[in-house]
Amino acid sequence: MKYDFTSIIDRRGKDATAVDAAGKRVWGFEPGAPMDGFDFIPMWVADMNFKTCPAITEAIIRRAQHPLFGYFQPKDVYYDSIIRWQEERNHVTGLSRENIGYENGVHGFISSAIDVLTQPGDKIFLHRPYYVGFIGDIIGKGRRPVYSDLKKDEHGFWRMDYEDMERQIRKNHVRLAIFCSPHNPCGRVWTREEIEKAMDVFQKNDCLVISDEIWSDLTYTGHSHVPTQMVSDWAREHVLAAYAPSKTFNLAGLIGSYHIIYNQALNEKITRFSENTHYNEMNVFSEHALIAAYSSEGQEWTDELRSVLEDNCRTAVDFMKEHFEGVDVSMPEGTYMLFLDCTDFCRRTGRTIDQVLRAGWNVGVGWQTGRAFGGECHIRVNLALPKARLMEALERMRKYVFTNEETAAYTYEATKAEPDKGAVEATTNHASVNTRAIKNTISETSQADRIMNVDSGADEMGQAKAADKTTDATGGTDESVQNREAAGSDADPEDFTADWIYNEEGLLMVSDDRNRDLTVEAVKKLLGDHPVEECHLAAFVNGDIVGNRDMQEAQNYGRILQNSGLTITELFTEEECVKLRQIGIF
Ligand SMILES: Cc1ncc(COP(=O)(O)O)c(C=O)c1O
What we know:
This protein is of the alpha/beta class. The chain folds into three domains: 132 residues, Aspartate Aminotransferase, domain 1; 186 residues, 3-Layer(aba) Sandwich (Aspartate Aminotransferase, domain 2), CATH 3.40.640; 158 residues, no CATH class. It has 21 helices and 19 strands. The strands form five sheets. Strands 2-10-9-8-7-3-4 form a seven-stranded mixed β-sheet, sandwiched between helices. Strands 15, 16, 17, 18 and 19 form a five-stranded mixed β-sheet that branches. Helix 2 runs antiparallel to helix 11, helix 3 runs parallel beside helix 11 and helix 19 packs across helix 20. The chain starts with 16 loop residues before the first helix and ends with a helix. The protein binds pyridoxal-5'-phosphate (PLP). Pyridoxal-5'-phosphate binds next to helix 4.
């Protein structure tokens, strides 16, 4: 290899969320910190533990040596580099400068496209599993996601279900879809035929498409990226594509992506929106980085990277298939993510996915909950790290996680904090600190019982207060759980399940995340009548306690509720919820 993909670089304290956020709360789905004696191996957020292409570092240093950083316009070579890269890597023809626009990250682009193309309350189509960031983009803008599930076929390949896509789009009157190609986290590099079929569905239903192709450079042997816009005349005119050098060259911290939009009217709309708001200005280092990345040296570096990543994926998949009984994993066709399905492992061993995740985190395997990506019993694993670290992580998984033996790795962090106490007692103490004002048990109620009636809440809320006074810290009583019916909403009350407790100190809301909008409406009404100073939010899915995805959703609720003037003082992490469940709060 000409380039260095083997050095193990200490990223601690060097602007690296991937390592510095372990055990902290940043986005809501960080891995836990390791136990003493284990170092942390970052295998979660989608950046790489490799140095970038040397041409990029050199270009940035060169530019920094000219110490004036005033306003500037992107150079012609910026656009020419993109056009050449797209021609040579993706066989794109007919691309001109007018079709390209700088974007402040793919998220920046998606957010503006959502603003320009939809209205608050509109529904936006996604495949599930999904890239977690899309959910934030959609909900953060007051829109709602609609899903069609990808399904694994008999060979372990994730497939789109075109009939279901059509059904979901029609039923929900969807006019905008986000299509992820190649797919994170499932690792599919969609074939031309698959993309054509998906576009047929969107075309039939008059649905514009944002095609997120940030992973397009990272494909493996036998799989090449097909730009969505190239599959038909309709796609060329109705698909808005996003690309970036950031995944390929490990440049996420520099910010910088770009759109390709052939439809002149759409391009003007999007461009005008971001120009008017001035939020979308390019950083000069990002410009120089892209030009260097999309050079011939960048091409060569990318090809070496792809072979390193492919080897890592093959090694990890083979190792897992051989040693991790009950873990379903298939070789990705692109990206550097694995999406492990642990359903069988959990069923066989009686463990929860949270225990499995925690067992990995305890020994420094910095993987990430799949719930954040729409996989209930899944784990997402980032394989962009030197092989030696990968092998170390796989060995730790084998020894401490995917084993039938009960090991120290299965204790919770609370045990560490109070080593002289048993796990349950320590956990209970820890949890009671976190729950503070929440002194009640939410009982297991039937679906019908959990229906919530916000309009008739006033009297019952008084009862909740009274009942609350009689409860102790961990025992709780059922009387303090108020279950009401969702009257007054135009949505189907059948759709709305939520449990909540309310007392002088605050509100704890536990809601089914499928009913986010109803929940937010309900909480707003509730708070309108009964102001509280604190709000504790958690969520559960299908009767199971929150995962990290729901933490993010709780944050999204939090954001919306803050706009209603409420101070959110406590959101629960997945870990805290596990503890709450252990002591019977949920
Ligand atoms: C599919 C996808 N889109 C977008 C992003 C983030 O893009 P950006 O950092 O340019 O906003 C990621 C990062 O993991 C991703 O996987």
